[in-house]
Amino acid sequence: MSALDTDYLIIGAGATGLAFADTLLEESKEAHITIVDRHAKPGGHWNDAYPFVALHQPSAFYGVGSLELGSGLKDSLGSQNGFNAGMYELASGAEINGYFNRVMQQKLLPSGRVRYMPMSNYKQGGNGLGHIESLLSGQTTPITLRKKLVDATHFSPNVPSTHAPKYRVASGVHLIPPNGLAQLWQALERPQHFCIIGAGKTGMDVGVWLLSHGVAPEAISWVMPRDSWLVNRITTQPGVEFFMQSIGGQAKQLEALSQATSADDFFDRLEAAGQMLRIDPKVRPSMFHIATMSEGEVALLRQITQVIRKGRAQEINASGLVLDQGHVPMPANTLYINCSASAVEYKKSQPIFQSGKIVPQLVRAPLISFSSSLIAYVEAHYDTDEQKNKLCHPVPFPHQMQGYIATCLFNMMNQMNWGQDKVLRAWMRSNRLDGFGKLTAGVDPADLEKSAVLAQLKNLGPAAAANAQKLLATTRA
């Protein structure tokens, strides 16, 4: 193939890469973009996800800025098993895959300034030179990069279907990823028992799916090495009718952070304020990955009482499970579901804007689409990497509870910097991926209740930031 050239080469056609490309296309009217991805279709990890997967949070916050995902309507009693009823819709994995294909076929490629190369790898060379390699033929194509490489893989999640379990599996054990559950109609023998291995959002989704499809709670065991705090989904709703839960919830979070004496105390206060949930009220969680669930889903999962808290699985054999803290027998004909892949692996933050390179990361947790869109806007409109990095400080993704204090602090720091830039602030309010900008900007001063909440946000911010720094310093000492 003839040699190619491009201004921006984006590695990854998932949410991060496509949100970046969409905004850059809008804001930089001459830039040419090449997108390289290993998958055969746009959508990144959604191509590999289990068929009953759905977004944690409303569709309004996800995708690309120029094309709405979903209908903007609320779920009815008959959708999402009724557990999201009355709240804004959550796109399914199938909807998201179709959506990202439309983004590529109806928005990016018709511009004439985007080249898409699926089933390909990029191999970087020196002086802006590199090669794109086809995964099918092995053929390589030279490409010259005029401006920047965009590594949109930093935040790529793992999914069970592409993740090999770290524990041993003996011959004859029936272990499947969640993807295999929908294919059980092909099985020669119906499982008598189900064992979920993994306590993250995937394991929770599997538990909800099994129970919703008629599996008795007593026929389910759940290996839960660590319990998790969960964001109450009602606090993430974008509509004005949810103002007190969403914006009011943010004020409650700042109040909790300003008064907390430790990470545990912070989460206790958030739980008391209705911001956080946990599956077992008798067990203190030690993990937080911003998984988001409704109160109805949590109530359903509480029906599973055979919860195994003996550490991580080391082996599955004919007699059952070998865990960190001992052996647990399992019934004959148990189907094990591997949910142990870590959706978000820990990666150390790095500067987003580097010499000849952009590494999109969260600048407002947990909104990766908005973060990537804002980074592209900043790339198009600001001159130096120093200016850009000041506006786009990476927000660390929490893994332990203490990490969420840092997440909140850096969210606040970025928001303060953005608020001082009038042009950027106006663009954010026009971006559909900015969940609450329009909501707060549209408050009528005559609405005393909502105005009081906005005043709380403003007044509590400095105290919350100061106490967050104190708590983090105490932990490091």
Describe the 3D structure.
It is built from twelve helices and 20 strands. It has 477 residues and is α/β, with parallel strands linked by helices. The strands form four sheets. Strands 1, 2, 3, 4, 5, 6, 19 and 20 form an eight-stranded mixed sheet that branches. Helix 1 runs parallel beside helix 2. The longest helix has 29 residues, at 448-476. The protein is globular. The model has no long low-confidence stretch (mean pLDDT 93).
Sequence-ordered SSE layout with sheet pairings:
Elements: E1 4-11, H1 15-27, E2 33-36, H2 93-108, E3 114-117, E4 120-124, E5 129-134, E6 140-151, E7 168-169, E8 174-176, E9 193-197, H3 201-212, E10 220-223, E11 230-232, H4 243-259, H5 263-272, E12 276-277, E13 292-293, H6 295-301, E14 306-308, E15 313-317, E16 320-323, E17 326-329, E18 334-338, E19 353-354, E20 357-358, H7 368-381, H8 385-391, H9 401-419, H10 422-430, H11 437-441, H12 448-476
Parallel strand pairs: 1-2, 1-6, 2-3, 6-20, 7-15, 8-18, 9-10, 9-18, 10-14, 11-13
Antiparallel strand pairs: 4-5, 5-6, 11-12, 15-16, 16-17, 19-20
Distance between the termini: 58 Å
What class would the helix/strand composition place it in? alpha/beta
Instruction: Indicate the proportion of strand residues.
Output: 15-25%
Percent range of helical residues: 25-40%
Estimated radius of gyration: 23 Å
Essential attributes:
alpha/beta; eight-stranded mixed beta sheet; 18% strand
Write a concise synopsis of the structure shown.
The protein is of the alpha/beta class and 477 residues long. The chain has helices at 15-27, 93-108, 201-212, 243-259, 263-272, 295-301, 368-381, 385-391, 401-419, 422-430, 437-441, 448-476; strands at residues 4-11, 33-36, 114-117, 120-124, 129-134, 140-151, 168-169, 174-176, 193-197, 220-223, 230-232, 276-277, 292-293, 306-308, 313-317, 320-323, 326-329, 334-338, 353-354, 357-358.
